[in-house]
Recover the amino acids of this structure.
């Protein structure tokens, strides 16, 4: 034994930033502006929260459900629960009541921390959560007079008040559980994935690599991705470790408020799903120059594919680099990053926009330590030639090995996780996703990628969003149909879309129909809910044009 | 168990870069230019080397001594030995024969890989290395007709030739040993530090953080630090992981050749001890504009303190950012980095030169996961106020917990390593080193930092190098004396040095004498050898001016 056996615990990382940059702001949006506290205060409050939780009976390994917007108190909950060795059970506030009840009971969470404005969403669950012993309610301005039928409810500030600002974080084994997230399953119950100290520690370090997103202490970070989505993509931990300024939108997630927040706080790096950036673009287009986004340098986008037209707009209009990440609840979540821009500096010049846009359309290269591979149906690895398409499997130290208290052996092959995605890997080891396996359109024995079509269609002027789904066809099995959301006063014709698609796709790949809709239904994590789209079309008795 | 139990083995990292950038050059300097091979070839040759080593009887955990300059074959040895689970025992080619014999025998290395031009240095050891069963000799151009009395010698290329380009790296436990380095001990025998897969894995990832040195796949890296110094400061591993171009000076380490190599190969990041950068500066000053260093953006300097005047020259003249790192054999070696420059980019502007120069004079902030602390003589932690000075102790996952086969309990306090350095920690957690504990000058009950004086004196025009050591004084205990190396035709007077030092130091801290010398003796790792300086002064009967 030559080297120290220091366990990889999150408590070793999250204290670091506050020591380096105690005065760094943690900014939370409020109804009429922002409120702010320093990183030092945040850490002290987190230590007090940990005391309160322990006093309430929360011990090592116990689940604490957190039902909150992004904000300073949510960050304190991350910090306290991780530090004390409890398990941060992030509750998606957009889950339906039945799913919410299921996940709290399945996780047997002992205590809930809830934003007061969200209490009404939990009201129907009163009396149905046998494991929950107490509720701590965080009241932002205007919500001080909250009430709830949930048991043993305490105000968050009262819960913290009696305690000292120093909690001795326990020493644990590094695979000790740290967090629990449930996937918004499209079939059956949500499935839980349990994160561990070791896995999140390694994930936190890796995401701060220069070739990932170049996150630095000098960044001001805004996670537009909710902190209840897969550990906020790791941003809360990484920013705590580095000592970044953090800016949190709380419940003010509309594009207007988000744009203003990014501008006013000088955010340099923001992260969120593509729909957020589509919304911000629309807001910018409606009133050009309304936001001064001159400090914003990078947007990390993930959760679904980034349309090239969106990346191009941010690059051309705002000079903002878009970085695509790919991952999922089961991969903690960050697995790959698309980034190949020489850092601007001496002797470097930014790569040509077209080369950059080609890169950002890919899911990218796996973070060091993680392996991504494509396999055919007989589990034979496929060549990395940018042509062969197969099931995407992944393994590594922050990839899940099982679901929480539910055996799902078909989601694993050997030590690989089956991601459910289908894609290619090119000569430079860049993963290029084709589609979710279940969203591919199978036409005449060939596969059509719904994602590729969507990303191409959405580049047409006047189209805000496009969603392509398969519809049954007696001869071809399935044919693609595009649903589109239009800008105000815009129109679109099928022939126009097909002509536009012919620039890139073969004739047999073109959509058979274009349906203008008001909006596309989204899943609880903000992705297009194609299962619901297909179900709605079926319920409406939709038939393909040539079958009518 | 929610997450996969993937062991942190170096074989998981080092294959990555070649997959991402198979065509990246590995450049080795030769007598009349360079030779180059691709990263793909390098990896294939490493796999063949591993086959050869296994065939020669090298198994998991066996030590392989490597006695080589920086070059492609040395990199192959790193790769093969790490991959196959053997132990890379780096031999410092500047060690004296007796120390060399000691470390090879103490490590019980079973096989040596030796650069042919270095064979004469091993000649005196023939017949004195009982554990060594075979020698593999790497012959660069001009050294093909090597001969040696060492046992079972084979040419490196013949050793590789029979084998396939794919070796199945074994699965091991992550604390499996990976490498072995001996410190060039100033007292007694050299002490060995054994690195493990886990510790080097974590070290490799951490050193690539943006806030460390921002190492990226887009960098062309030149380790002017020898690969026989503490795993080449981790650069070989990091560059393999990211897929960087690597440029290696081999035996051509003089400033002229190094400058030309950096220029010709468009190196963007170089690393080495301050004396290397002093040498390069002198070469540049002798003939301005001789090297086009416009691509060079960062120099990582470590091993001893960086004089502010040196950092200023590189910044002002070449626009090169100097990054100071601090660490030691016992810390794998990278522990802290001094870097606080906003990355040039949107909305950022470089900090003012003076602020930058103040930062680069500090050892810097600990890498995430590592703890650095200062203690008083009763092992009480001291405040981080930039004033309190104490013993620097360090702990974390890449800090050694014991020396190899030698108990040295006084080098540890609890789970802390006693570094032997003395310093302060400021409010932003930056470590500011005062001196090696044994090099401090104790005058009238107060301490004088020899390093601070040196770094100030060397800024005087005409002075190339300065070395301050204590000399005995009957009243004050010790008084500082400065030895200086001058530029050609330059002169210096004691009064001049003292006046210059008064700008920053109190009168009682000024050196009592200035001695002009031809050169300062260096240790095997290129640091000023103050033990020898003091011994030489004593042998020469040196007395302080007022005692003569």
């Amino acid at each position: 034994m030559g080297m120290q056996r220091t366990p990889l615990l999150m408590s070793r990382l999250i204290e670091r930033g506050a020591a380096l940059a105690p005065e760094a702001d943690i900014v939370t949006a409020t109804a009429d502006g922002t409120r702010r506290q320093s990183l030092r205060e945040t850490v002290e409050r987190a230590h007090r929260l940990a005391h309160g939780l322990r006093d309430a009976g929360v011990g090592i390994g116990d689940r604490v459900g957190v039902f909150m917007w992004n904000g300073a108190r949510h960050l304190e909950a991350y910090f306290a629960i991780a530090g004390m060795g409890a398990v941060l059970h992030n509750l998606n506030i957009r889950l339906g009541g039945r799913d919410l009840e299921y996940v709290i009971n399945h996780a047997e969470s002992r205590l809930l921390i809830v934003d007061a404005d969200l209490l009404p969403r939990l009201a129907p669950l009163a009396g149905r959560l046998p494991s929950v012993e107490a509720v701590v309610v965080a009241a932002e301005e205007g919500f001080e007079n909250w009430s709830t039928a949930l048991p043993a409810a305490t105000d968050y500030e009262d819960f913290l008040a009696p305690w000292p600002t120093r909690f001795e974080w326990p020493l644990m084994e590094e695979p000790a559980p740290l967090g629990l997230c449930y996937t918004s399953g499209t079939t059956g119950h949500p499935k839980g994935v349990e994160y561990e100290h070791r896995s999140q520690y390694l994930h936190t370090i890796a995401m701060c690599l220069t070739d990932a997103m170049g996150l630095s202490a000098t960044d001001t970070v805004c996670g537009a991705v909710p902190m209840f989505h897969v550990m906020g993509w790791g941003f809360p931990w990484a920013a705590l470790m580095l000592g970044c300024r953090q800016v949190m939108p709380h419940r003010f997630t509309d594009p207007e408020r988000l744009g203003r927040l990014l501008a006013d706080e000088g955010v340099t790096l923001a992260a969120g799903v593509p729909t957020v950036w589509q919304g911000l673009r629309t807001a910018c287009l409606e009133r050009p120059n309304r936001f001064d986004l001159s400090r914003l340098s990078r947007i990390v986008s993930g959760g679904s594919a980034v349309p090239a037209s969106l990346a191009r707009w941010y690059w051309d209009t705002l000079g903002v680099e878009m970085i695509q990440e790919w991952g999922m609840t089961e991969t903690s979540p960050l697995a790959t990053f698309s980034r190949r821009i020489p850092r601007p500096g001496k002797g470097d010049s930014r790569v040509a926009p077209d080369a950059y846009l080609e890169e950002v359309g890919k899911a990218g290269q796996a973070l060091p330590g993680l392996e991504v591979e494509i396999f055919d149906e007989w589990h034979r690895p496929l060549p990395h030639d940018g042509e062969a398409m197969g099931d995407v499997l992944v393994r590594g130290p922050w990839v899940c090995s099982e679901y929480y208290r539910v055996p799902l052996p078909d989601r694993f092959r050997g030590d690989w996780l089956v991601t459910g995605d289908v894609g290619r890997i090119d000569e430079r080891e860049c993963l290029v996703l084709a589609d979710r396996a279940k969203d591919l359109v199978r036409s005449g024995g060939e596969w059509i990628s719904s994602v590729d079509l969507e990303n191409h269609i959405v580049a047409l002027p006047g189209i805000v969003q496009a969603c392509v789904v398969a519809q049954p066809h007696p001869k071809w099995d399935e044919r693609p149909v595009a649903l589109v959301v239009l800008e105000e006063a815009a129109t679109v014709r099928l022939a126009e879309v097909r002509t536009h698609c012919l620039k890139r796709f073969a004739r047999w790949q073109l959509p058979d129909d274009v349906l203008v809709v008001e909006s596309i239904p989204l899943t609880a994590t903000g992705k297009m809910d194609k299962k619901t789209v297909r179900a709605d079309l079926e319920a409406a008795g939709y038939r393909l044009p040539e079958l009518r």
